[in-house]
């Protein structure tokens, strides 16, 4: 991956290359929030260095080196959640902010997302979620009716998931200082005994399993926000994945090496992060990746790659090939994994890269999303 | 909405490839004109499965890539004005001008918005009568009708706080310019299906005749492209040079008359500069005198703003197909989709970006040439 600084490098025209632009390097771009390469560089090049050794204070290690279990580094700043070893129990902690526009969309709303998103981040590290905190940042003038509706939706989602909201906070800011409502949730969970999960644990030979169709959430939000009229045909896939994750761990425990819910940045970015963290290659069979027909059609019209579009209710797992069928069967027996499929495998070749076999049998690289997804002209 | 699975059948694709291998006796070089076609070819890896020696030259059909530096600078000069809401299709926003891009201007406070249709920009103008809404009208003949309709709509509704920054380009003059070039290696063209859906193909008949070059109007799906390539190769193998239509489900010889009439009403033909190529006579569109009031360059007085392209940039040679992205010293190192130095690296339809996102490296090419 390229460093941000190189963008300002002056290119010698005598070398027969193009003129260098002064790409923005000192301000945050929207693309820094896309979940792709820019987001990763914001964390790696700005946030982690500025925190310095504050990520490793005595006693606990928020970056997740698990105390009392051999000291293996199981998580990195780019994992979905941290695992804290407390002696008798390992605790999984994750926090996430939700800034979706519009607040209500087909298949859900910001409240549901805030509950599901954090539960899923805890679950992806093998945590059985125990409770959530809920923080609202509300813009002055926000309709109370909408706030009631969203809070009721938070309650409903928490009840359905069986994960209580145990504490919270609310702040109000001046009109114009926020876009209606922002929500931050933090989740805490107990790590399931069988869970030894990390993005760094994929091994050559592992089967890559996907719990269901991709790209539904991103297309739904885009359609609702821009009034593109696909809303009738598509709905967000937002749903809790902790029961599905637990069923998978139940079926094969230590054979499940990695679990990820590919949210912002899409499946392609999640697979790339895993390939890089584990230093392995990933090969997917592109036609095997399920994309619902209306979603595929919308992506086609807008020039978006479904592999880069956000999801809120599916997971990808890297599983020992010997137990892949058992895990797949366990996935299919859970409502959240009914359409689970095997989409590829891990190879020792091209470490850090993801490739796809295309439908005509050629192979190409699947890259991470860079910044924002920009719809094409024609 | 119906999807396009029937044009993506792997077994049919295999059959077309086999037929192509059985037909081609020479290392033909074809150019696909449109960036959408380049995207499919590279994304599906079609160009890598062609018979040995045969190659696809990627043409200048990415509107984002050929929009001149000068016009980008003018766009940005307009976009930073406080009264302006600057609207554009998404992929124009990351194209580097002389010193910045529209996304970076947005981060610095300019009101830059992505729209999905020029009509959305007219609607914004209606909703914000105190602001000036400018739409960046880029593209080939494909996007011109919708942009013309936006102007007609604004005129009919008396919306005068709407204007277009026009950078429309036309395909046939570009084909002629490529064929006239001394370094031209193109032996046949896949014409852009959607451009022909609007314009038909009568303009291409004299080009095929004069330069004795087969032109096949082709769609954008994998099977469309394979069939278009096969049709062009069959012509080359039998010494024919006609305009043929592979994309019969969308294109008629005369095109779409109402769309042409709307374009003719609002736009006139003019000389246009193409980024990296230079000015091609009668290769673009400008607003007619009747609709000159909707011209953003005039309204915001940016016509004196000039920018010089770096003469050593190889984007021009890439856009005309004489060199490959992997020939460029900056490709994949200093120049990536994240830090584009030239326009073909910006849009996913750009040749350099298509190569990069498919993981094509300089090493791949060297290995292939050695084998």
UniProtKB/TrEMBL annotation, chain B:
Name of the protein in question: Hydrogenase formation protein HypD
GO biological process: protein maturation
InterPro entries on file: Hyd_form_HypD, HypD_1, HypD_2_sf
Entry annotated with the keyword Iron: yes
UniProt KW Transmembrane keyword: no
Annotated Gene3D superfamilies: 6.10.20.100, HypD, alpha/beta domain 2
Signal peptide positions (record): none
Xref: PANTHER family: HYDROGENASE MATURATION FACTOR HYPD, HYDROGENASE PROTEIN ASSEMBLY PROTEIN HYPD
Upper lineage: Bacteria, Bacillati, Actinomycetota, Actinomycetes, Jiangellales
NCBIfam families: hypD (TIGR00075)
Similarity field: Belongs to the HypD family.
GO molecular function: 4 iron, 4 sulfur cluster binding; carbon monoxide binding; iron ion binding
Pfam families in the cross-refs: HypD
UniProtKB keywords: Iron, Metal-binding
């Amino acid at each position: 991956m390229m460093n941000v600084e190189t963008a300002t490098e002056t290119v010698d025209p005598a070398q027969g290359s193009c003129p260098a632009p002064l790409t923005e390097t000192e301000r945050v771009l929207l693309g820094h929030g896309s979940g792709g390469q820019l987001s990763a560089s914001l964390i790696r090049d700005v946030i982690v260095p500025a925190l310095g050794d504050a990520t490793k204070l005595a006693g606990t290690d928020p970056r997740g080196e698990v105390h009392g279990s051999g000291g293996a580094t199981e998580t990195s700043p780019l994992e979905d959640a941290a695992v804290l070893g407390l002696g008798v129990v390992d605790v999984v902690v994750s926090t996430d902010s939700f800034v979706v526009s519009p607040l209500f969309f087909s298949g859900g709303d910001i409240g549901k997302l805030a509950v599901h998103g954090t539960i899923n981040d805890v679950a992806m590290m093998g945590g059985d979620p125990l409770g959530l905190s809920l923080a609202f940042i509300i813009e002055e003038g926000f309709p109370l009716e909408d706030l009631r509706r969203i809070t009721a939706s938070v309650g409903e989602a928490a009840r359905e998931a069986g994960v209580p909201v145990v504490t919270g906070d609310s702040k109000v800011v001046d009109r114009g200082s926020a876009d209606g409502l922002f929500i931050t949730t933090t989740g805490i969970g107990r790590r399931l005994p069988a869970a030894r999960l990390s993005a760094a644990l994929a091994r050559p030979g592992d089967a890559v399993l996907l719990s269901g169709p991709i790209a539904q959430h991103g297309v739904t939000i885009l359609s609702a926000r821009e009034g593109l009229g696909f809303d009738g045909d598509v709905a967000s896939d937002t749903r809790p994945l902790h029961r599905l994750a637990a069923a998978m761990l139940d079926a094969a425990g230590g054979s499940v090496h990695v679990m990820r819910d590919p949210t912002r940045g899409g499946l392609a970015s999640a697979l790339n992060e895993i390939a890089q963290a584990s230093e392995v290659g990933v090969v997917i069979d592109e036609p095997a990746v399920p994309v619902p027909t209306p979603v595929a059609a919308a992506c086609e019209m807008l020039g978006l790659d479904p592999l880069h579009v956000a999801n809120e209710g599916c997971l990808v797992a890297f599983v020992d090939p010997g137990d892949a069928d058992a895990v797949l069967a366990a996935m299919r027996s859970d409502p959240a994994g009914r359409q689970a499929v095997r989409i590829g495998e891990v190879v020792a070749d091209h470490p850090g890269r993801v490739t796809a076999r295309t439908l005509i049998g050629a192979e190409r690289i699947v890259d991470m999303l860079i910044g924002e997804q920009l719809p094409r002209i024609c | 909405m119906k999807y396009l699975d029937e044009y993506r059948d792997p077994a049919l694709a295999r059959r077309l490839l086999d037929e192509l291998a059985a037909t081609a006796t020479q290392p033909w070089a074809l150019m696909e004109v449109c960036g959408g076609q380049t995207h499919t070819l590279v994304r599906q890896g079609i160009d890598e499965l062609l018979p040995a020696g045969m190659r696809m030259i990627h043409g200048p059909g990415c509107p984002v890539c050929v929009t001149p530096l000068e016009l980008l600078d003018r766009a940005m000069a307009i976009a930073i004005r406080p009264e302006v809401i600057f609207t554009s299709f998404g992929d124009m926003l990351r194209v580097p001008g002389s010193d910045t891009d529209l996304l970076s201007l947005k981060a610095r406070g300019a009101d830059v918005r992505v729209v999905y249709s020029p009509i959305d920009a007219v609607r914004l103008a209606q909703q914000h009568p105190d602001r000036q809404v400018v739409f960046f009208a880029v593209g080939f003949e494909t996007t011109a009708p919708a942009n013309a309709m936006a102007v007609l709509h604004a005129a009919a509704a008396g919306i005068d706080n709407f204007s277009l920054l026009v950078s429309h380009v036309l395909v046939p003059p570009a084909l002629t310019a490529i064929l006239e070039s001394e370094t031209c290696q193109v032996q046949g063209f896949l014409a852009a299906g959607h451009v022909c859906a609007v314009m038909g193909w009568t303009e291409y008949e004299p080009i095929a005749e004069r330069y004795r070059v087969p032109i096949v109007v082709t769609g954008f799906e994998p099977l469309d492209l394979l069939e278009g390539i096969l049709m062009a190769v069959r012509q080359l193998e039998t010494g024919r040079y006609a305009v043929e239509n592979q994309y019969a489900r969308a294109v008629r010889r005369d095109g779409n008359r109402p769309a042409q009439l709307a374009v003719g009403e609002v736009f006139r033909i003019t000389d246009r500069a193409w980024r990296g190529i230079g000015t091609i006579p009668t290769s673009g569109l400008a607003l007619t005198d009747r609709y000159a009031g909707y011209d953003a360059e005039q309204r915001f007085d940016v016509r004196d703003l000039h920018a010089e392209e770096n003469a050593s940039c190889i984007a021009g040679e890439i856009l005309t197909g004489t060199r490959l992205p992997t020939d460029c010293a900056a490709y994949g190192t200093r120049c990536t989709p994240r830090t584009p130095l030239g326009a073909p690296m910006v849009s996913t339809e750009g040749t350099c970006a298509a190569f990069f996102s498919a993981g094509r490296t300089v090493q791949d090419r060297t290995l292939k040439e050695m084998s």
